[in-house]
Amino acid sequence: QVQLVESGGGLVQAGGSLRLSCAASGRTFSYYAVGWFRRAPGKEREFVASITASGSATYYTGSAKGRFTISRDNTKNTVYLQMNNLKPEDTAVYYCAGSSIAAGNIRIRPSDFQSWGQGTQVTISS
Questions:
Q1: In contact, 36 and 50? CB cutoff 8 Å
Q2: How far is CA 8 from CA 42, 43, 80, in A?
Q3: What is the per-residue pLDDT across 36-60, written as a single tens digit (0 to 9) for each?
Q4: How far is the C-alpha of 96 from the C-alpha of 120, rounded, in Å?
Q5: Residue 20 bridge partners (DSSP)
Q6: Chain centroid to CA 17: how far?
Q7: Separation of alpha carbons 111 and 106, rounded Å
Q8: Which of 55, 46, 37 is nearest to 103 (CA)?
Q9: Cβ neighbours of residue 4 closer than 8 Å, sequence gap 6 or more
């Protein structure tokens, strides 16, 4: 399995931006589809965005569409989540996850992914 490490979280004011990174080590990352998920305090984990192994397709949850952009650089074994116009309701721990199964397809369910990072905290102040 690939090992994943998130970074880039922090505290920003509403309307600000953050770029999260998901760095992979171990197996060939370009064979993995990657998703971003988040868990807010007292809430269930929810899907945010996903990208196929080649980066040819992306998919977003409704609240992320138009504000967040998922991308990847397979030469650097890294997936990014650019988050703009952040809102207090975006406050959560953000996790990246990798799937080597059907990696050419968009994956959105937590059960689709075999590898998970430890998470990075994102806090948006109003």
A1: yes
A2: 23, 22, 10
A3: 999 999 999 999 999 999 999 999 9
A4: 9
A5: 81
A6: 15
A7: 13
A8: 55
A9: 22, 23, 24, 96, 97, 98, 115, 116, 117
